[in-house]
Amino acid sequence: MSTATDYLEKFSDVNALPSVVATVNRLINDSESTMKDFEDVIKMDQVLVARLLKLVNSPFYGLTQTVDSISRAVAFLGMKNLHNLVVIDAVQTIFVAPRKTRGFSKKKLWHHSAAVSICSKMIAERIFGVNGDDALLCGILHDFGILIEEQINPIAFESLVSACKSSSTITDLENKAFGTNHCELGHLMTIDWNMSTSVQEAIRDHHLISNEMKPDTLTGIIQISEYITGQINYTTLPEITVDISTPLLQHLQDNIDEYKVLIEDLPEEMQKANAIYG
Q1: What is the distance between the alpha carbons of residues 49 and 128, in angstroms, rounded to a whole number?
Q2: Average pLDDT taken over every residue of the chain
Q3: How many distinct structural domains can be found in the chain?
């Protein structure tokens, strides 16, 4: 058994994935799934039902009539948005779980993940003109492996945080401390959760520096977003260098005007997302 597999199994024993998430993950990857299938799953979880109806009736959507049925709410949001809502709702509880490590803040990691998530969605939709739902989800989950390390091996994790410096590469520090890293852990987790292949690969490779990296791939989008948010201090750990592949940096330079507007709009877009996901 690999170190990453061992860590993930120990983590899953303590933080079992809610059954509703596993079911929704399966449905989203089944081309024959219907809105009725999603409705049948959601209505079994009263907390999710309440949040779903609150979301659809929030000022974010500005509907003129109140939506008071699960079926109408599910139909309005669509499968992808519903899937993201369910997954994010589940992982948020882990981000705020009590445990203190000097120099590390789960709240700060959540803010980083949220910033990367929203920025990635904006890049997908504004720069490349594609649906940004997978980018949003991938951004939330891309650093989730750090929480697994922090919970399963807190002593080594605290040493890792203390070792961070401006020349540090986080995956190098992790490999030395744990024999694995958050990219590998996140990759295995998304396989276990039946996420799409593109999300699995983007989480596995979001720290991969390659001259073959393409900006319009999900991996490229996540890496660009991490670089941008790192420049405006939405970082994961203190004093960690945020690297970016050369083709992605060239892409940023070639499209600098569009990215300047995107960065200016990022705080407002994060406020809108907060109304949905918290």
Answers
A1: 34
A2: 86
A3: 1
